[in-house]
Amino acid sequence: MADSKYVLEVNDLHTSFFTDSGEVKAVNGVNFKIEPGKTLGIVGESGSGKSVTAYSIMQILAQTGRITSGEVLFKGEDITKYSEREMQKFRGSKCSIIFQDPMTSLNPVFTVGYQLEEAIMLHTNKNRAQAKERAIELLKLVGVNDPEKRINQYPHEHSGGMRQRDMIAMALACEPDILIADEPTTALDVTIQAQILELMQELQKKLGMAIIMVTHDLGVIANMCDEIIVMYGGRVCERGTADDIFYRPAHEYTKGLLRSIPRKDNMKEKLVPIGGTPINLLNMPEGCAFCPRCDAAMKICLNQVPDELRISDSHLASCWMNVKELYESKEA
Amino acid sequence: MDNKEMKRSFLSAQVDLSKFNAGNFEKATDEEKRQKDVMGESTTFFKDGMRRLRKNPLAMASIVVLFAILLVIIIAPHFVPYSYDEVVTVNGQRDKTMTNLSFMCYSDKELIYMDETGEDLFPHIFGTDGLGRDYFIRVIYGTRVSLAVGVVAALMVVLIGIIYGSVAGYFGGKVDLIMMRIVDIIYSLPDMLIIILLSVVLKEVLGGKLAGTVFSKLGTNMISMFIVFGLLYWVSMARLIRGQILTIKNNEYVLAAKCIGTSNRKILIKHILPNCLSVIIITTALQIPSAIFTESYLSFLGLGVSIPLSSLGSLANDARAGMQTYPERLVIPAVIICLIVLALNLLGDGLRDAFDTKLD
Amino acid sequence: MAKYIAKRILLAIVSIWIITMITFFAMNAIPGGPFNKEKALSEKTLKELEERYNLDKPVGEQYVLYMKDILHGDWGVSLKTGRPIWDDMIKKFAVSAKLGGMASIFAIIIGIILGAIAALTRNKLPDRLIIFFTTLGTAMPSFVLATLLLLVFCLKLGWFPVYSATDPNYTLPVIALAVYPMAYITRLTKTSMLDALNQDYIRTARAKGVSKLKVIFLHALRNALIPVITYVGPMVAYILTGSMVVENIFTIGGLGSTFVTSITSRDYPTIMAVTIFLAMLMVVANLLTDIVYKFVDPRIKLD
Questions:
Q1: Are residues C120 and C38 in the same domain?
Q2: Is C19 in the same domain as C116?
Q3: Which residue of A255, B185, B219, C295 lies most exposed, with the fewest beta carbons within 10 A?
Q4: Under an 8 A CB cutoff, do A312 and B10 touch?
Q5: How far is C158 from chain A (nearest CA, A)?
Q6: Domain extent for C40
Q7: What is the pTM (predicted TM-score) of this model?
Q8: Considering only residues 194 to 233 of chain C, which have any Cβ-Cβ distance to chain A shorter than 8 Å?
Q9: What pLDDT digit, counting tens, does each position of C118-155 carry?
């Protein structure tokens, strides 16, 4: 297959869950591309579709979930067409994922060492002894102290931060091209958060992998990401660099998010939450997904999904407000 | 070019303004926005659960079956002119051919009677038993007894369990520790053995003394069963309730109630127990068939209700002797036991699926 | 861990002690003593029997003497047969153990397999069939099933011979005993499998590239079996009590039916001995279950 400049390309991805209550449209037309060694941040609240997007890439959706259309190109190849066996080879070796809650994400009845060795032996030719050596190496790499001892312990014997390091070690065991981090620091203390993020950046420099950082925490995103996409209701609202998003937000949802967090540059202003409740994915409204909660909503927002428009070299947004601005400036 | 100008220049290249008019950019009213925001209708916990229950065909079928059985056992005795403990007589005369009649058959004397007087005697729907008693009415009464025993035993167990569990769970600390140790010990005792033992003993000890009291009809076996139920069977309910209470106790609304000075008793009754309600109902629904099981098992061993009272279990046991010649006498009560237990189990499961929000 | 085991053993000992007390004092509460019922005995014989059985001493002392005897292997003499209880009891127990053992193994193996199948084919035909049969299974008391099996397959259809000591055919009795625990284990396995499959660590395993088969049978099942182990204790109790009726119905001379006949024939020493023996079995089964459970689940360290 054609080799592409991008290690991962997601084109017009649609994913739904087919439940007893109906079709839950979790991802509705998401596009993005990542180059090797770069970091993409996906920001959104619960239900925005960010995690489902990540799971769709790895095809580890729950039983009721399916990619309904679109393509996911890994180095030019469409992995949505892969068979289960090919996917199994892909997962863990070409692309790995670390999850939010390291407590529940590690199997409690197997030792940490066993789980690491499993990851290693699945994708390489090493035997158990060699795998164990590599596992110890990995634990050292991620900063777990006393790895020879730690490797024989069970997950519940490790602290929260250590467990997340174990997960990172497991994810990097086969030096994947892409690392997806699904809310990697949400379940951790703030001090540990910083350590883990630093660790990820170090490892990225060392191993050269692309990172997709999925989170609802704008602070985490700001420092790490080369490009950020903001999601709501399964769609991309806005995408750009950290500067674009934070200093020149071009979507009402992003603006709302920024107003609701404390910032160093406007400490005196009141925090304004976004009103209303998250969107009901069983019953998507016709127009812009954010419209019912948007203070600036217009008639056109009610019925038409906004087109994605380019605002600068690095910045795109899907919001009718930008068109309104243009319209009014022309009128003036 | 500053950012704003750059933005405008980018946008004008992409947007065909002629497609838009001023109306598009008018603000949307709150009403219009609300219409787009379709949320599920809010319901109470109870309504939501009942809705789920109604969708469960097995649970619904069980409710129908149980109702039907209840209906029959309440109404039937009014229609059937035979009594469960008296041998059927024709015109006050005994009839040797009255015994072991088959379904819907009449004895010789009955047939003669019907010919002579032209009267229609009520049919023996299930025939008669070895002593000449109408079997249908015996089965009806057996069902009544079995159900009554099951329900009373279950209620007793539930009540004791709730009280014990609430006290242990609510007060916690040392009280809880001691109470739960006792529960552990009781839990490890083999209940069936103790029931059997007690039955044997009580029969001898109380035998004569009960005559004339309200308990005499029940019989010593039943009494020992109830005693053992009251002493031993409440433990799992107590554990369950205690667990629930411990979880709920730590919720903030309980703390809030305490802060405004609500008494312990009131907190327990008004806040904690209603939240346990679904667990209580489900456990009760599943406890009844268990009690019926135990009772029929004991009856089968000959340690159940005393003659002339009959329960489904004792009917089945009596029918064992003539099993090869009159199998239906064994099969009918057996099938009814299974039906009741099955229906209650399905209902209990259905209730749990509908009201236990933690599942799936 | 050692603390936990010690605690459990202590609990077991206390339970056995309580049971023996209840049994002993219950039997002694029966008015008229154990001998006056059946035959008319001469004054001299009565006196001798009373001395032999320490009946002239206060009850408390009788209890202690009785327990001492038990610990020394003297479980008394049957009123009915006149022989020492222990020997007969052990012989009969061997028969019951065979029956119960087969039923247990059958229930566990088939139960786990069916439960796993049901969890994996959820809401499809295999699952629905399994649900149907297990629901029936948990609704049928063992004695009902036993009598029906005997009636239909043995007496009417003649597919299986009637059990006799010289030509033992265990098929029907084992089925009768095993159905309820098997149904229970099936449901338990299914629920805990579904539970395990929903856990985050399963998602992690999939994300590592572990094959579906391995995910199910290694990662999930290992966790799912833990609750099933806790059922073994109650299952033993069920099979022991169930065997009383099943043996009775199929005329198998095991410990269970001996117990039943000793009740009807008022053979008090036997009743006592068998009760204590069975109770000890159940308590030990529960004790072993508790200990094994702690070994199998590494998460739980303390009580």
A1: no
A2: no
A3: C295
A4: yes
A5: 48
A6: 2-71
A7: 0.80
A8: 199-201, 203-212, 219, 222-223, 226
A9: 988 887 888 888 988 888 888 887 888 888 888 888 77
